[in-house]
Amino acid sequence: MSENSNLPSPVPPGQAPLGSGAMFDRIAERYDFLNRVLSLGIDHRWRRRAIAQLRISDAPAHIVDVATGTADIALAIHKRHPHAEVTGVDPSVGMLDVGQKKSRARGADAQVRLLVGDALSLPLDTASVDGAIIAFGIRNIPDRRAALAEMVRVVRPGGRVVVLELVEPEGRGLGRLARFHVHHVVPRLGGWLSGSREYRHLQQSIEAFPPPATFQTWMEEAGLVDVSATSQTFGVAYIFAGTVAGGTPDADGAP
User: Fold this and answer.
1) Structural domain includes residue 43
2) Closest residue by Cα to residue 151 from 136, 162, 139
3) For residue 28, how many other CB atoms are within 10 A of its CB?
4) Averaged pLDDT score across all residues of the chain
5) Does residue 253 belong to any structural domain of this protein?
6) Which of 20, 41, 109, 146 is deepest in the core (most CB within 10 A)?
7) Mean pLDDT computed over 32-51
8) Residue 9 domain-assigned (yes or no)
9) Element (H, E) at 115
10) Residues 179-184: contacts with CB within 8 Å, 24+ apart?
11) How far apart are CA 54 and CA 38, in angstroms?
12) Whole-number pLDDT of residue 15
């Protein structure tokens, strides 16, 4: 099923709009390393918890990883659920190229395919997948509510939509320390390590992300029920999860 070959060439370096696929082309080769450094390695734990919220069963399943980037989530799903089919979609050719290399190295090509695409117009049929997940990507989408609606469109009734995202930390004490990390350490260390201005955009995009309660409401308005928002590591990140309305409950009452 692999369609990972013949990706178009990345956009040449230049004044790529911040948050665009072309912007991420510029930092693709350094993206994984920078994420490990800037998150102090905690992002692996966040991803595992987000994947668990998909509630993938032992039956064959098809999951779409929106804004897949270098395919970290897609490959983590494959490792934990080797029977699952995963489609990763991202506008950055450079990021997908890195993800493609990782997929080949891990022998995952048969179950993981990576496609160039837009989160606002996913290349999937309505109700064609069992779950959708997006990690650290929805804050870069201009219309976040439309992106949520698009994920709901492609997921079957009763399937899950999961969002893992960095947010503006709140509170005092450790929350204040977390805010210092986001506002000062992330853009400066990221810029120093990468030689790019893109990590200033990271801090600014976190500031612009809505409060967790507001984002929960957006998920419900998009057609999700039983929506939850779980704080991670002093509120630096949140895992939002919900179920597409219309599914048949199991005997225990869960969708």
Assistant:
1) yes
2) 162
3) 19
4) 80
5) no
6) 109
7) 77
8) no
9) strand 112-116
10) 181/236, 182/206, 182/236
11) 26
12) 43
Nearest alpha carbon to residue 19 among 253, 199, 164, 190: 199
Q: Scanning the structure block, which residue is given the tokens 């990140």?
A: 237
CA pair distance 151, 229, nearest whole angstrom: 17
Q: Which two tokens stand for residue 111?
A: 């179950």
Looking at residue 228, its amino acid is S
C-alpha 72/C-alpha 118 separation (Å) is 18
CA-to-CA dists, residue 217 to 60, 65, 210, 228, angstroms: 31, 22, 11, 10
21-38 vs 93-105: helix crossing angle, rounded to 10: 50
- What's the CATH code of the domain at 148? 3.40.50.150
Torsion of CA 37, 38, 44, 47, to 10 degrees: -150
- Measured distance CA(21)–CA(18) in Å, rounded: 9
How many structural domains are present in the chain? 1
Integer Cα distance of 52 and 235 in angstroms? 19
Whats the size of the chain, residue-wise? 255
- Classify residue 189: in a domain, yes or no: yes
- Residue 55, burial from CB neighbour count under 10 angstroms (0-12, 13-18, 19+): middle
Taking only the tens place, the pLDDT of each residue in 161-202 is: 999 998 876 655 555 666 566 666 666 665 665 555 555 556
Q: Which domain holds residue 239?
A: 21-244
Best CA proximity match to 135, nearest among 58, 13, 23, 39: 39
Q: Quick: pLDDT tens for 105-148.
A: 999 989 999 999 999 999 999 999 999 999 988 988 989 999 99
